[in-house]
Amino acid sequence: MARELVAVEARTPVLREYQPGPVRPGTVRVVAEFGAAKHGTEMMGYRGEAIFNTHRYDRELRMLVPKEPDQVASRGFPLPLGNIVVGRVDAVGEGVEGFSVGDRVYGHLPLRDVQVAPVERLAPLPADMSPEAAVCTDPVDAALAMRDAHVRVGDRVAIFGLGAIGLFAVQLCKLSGAELVIAADPVPHRRELAQRLGADMVLDPTHGDVGLEIHQHTGKLGADVSLEVSGNSRALHQAIRSTKYSGTVAVIAAYGKTASQLNLGDEFHWNAINLISCRTVSLPLRDYGWDHERIVGLAETLLRTGRLKHDGIVDPIVPFEETPDAYRMIDADSSTSVKLGVRFG
């Protein structure tokens, strides 16, 4: 019998047995080797705080609308946990092309040791790409939303939040030609990792006035572009304070609760700040000729070729049997992990 990691209710992760089901046409069975969690939006669902517990996104209206009462009752539980799985194909359904038994694949799948998945959710794992790099395609995909902020050669950029997405955003801004990248996060380990990955300066937002420090370090001008990647409204407020007059603040993070520490009567009002929401899976993308497939392809290429470094980002790595405790640990203290990796077998 296969096993899966699920939250049976808010903040209650368990490993349980389940039946993967038959290998139908258009599907393959995958035996997992490695996987990873998604600490931002996934943890909102894990805690029972996701907006999609009570609302759904209407694609015609392009608005969130309330769910019917019977849909709200379960609040999304039981909830499969996990984000990306790397594994090996051990059975192929009728009509499947491009996948054979023994192929290594990866894709957005829950943490299960064996599962049957439609082929459109899977991609071949390149021979020169490690499982640790493969599970980082999602944070790189999300970090590539920084393209909407138009970071250019010579820019000074401030990045708030150094989880996996923020750490890749640091590298992407340097690749885009930013002259100065200042990274802020309260966790010392994440600041040290940001410096190893290319940040020119790191700041602890729990000590001192980050916005003032950034203005002083840029000749009183402020950052040309600030990226908010933490999902914390205090960080968004500081990102606005850190940005130059008529500069851009790009929000990549999702907010699970109201932004109670954001004051739009302060620098946002006085300094004509351009505040934009950036997301690579809200289609169509702003930039003609770019779609999500192209973004994901670029993420894979940058990781596979080593232009983006993932060393230290997938941390800690735990056996599948220990994932319930790992999720509880992350929930209690997010500073204990950057991106949780899971090893099967």
- The overall average pLDDT, rounded, is 95
Measured on Cα atoms, how large is the radius of gyration? 21 Å
Order of helices and strands: EEEHEEHEEEEEHHEHEHEHEHEHEHEHE
How many domains? The number is: 2
Proportion of helical residues: 25-40%
Largest sheet: 7 strands, mixed
Would you give the CATH topology of the largest domain? Quinone Oxidoreductase, Chain A, domain 1
Shape: globular
Q: Strand pairing plus helix content: what structural class?
A: alpha/beta
Q: Short description, anyone?
A:
This protein is α/β, with parallel strands linked by helices. 25% of the residues lie in helices and 29% in strands. The chain has 2 domains: 169 residues, Medium-chain alcohol dehydrogenases, catalytic domain (Quinone Oxidoreductase, Chain A, domain 1); 136 residues, NAD(P)-binding Rossmann-like Domain (Rossmann fold).
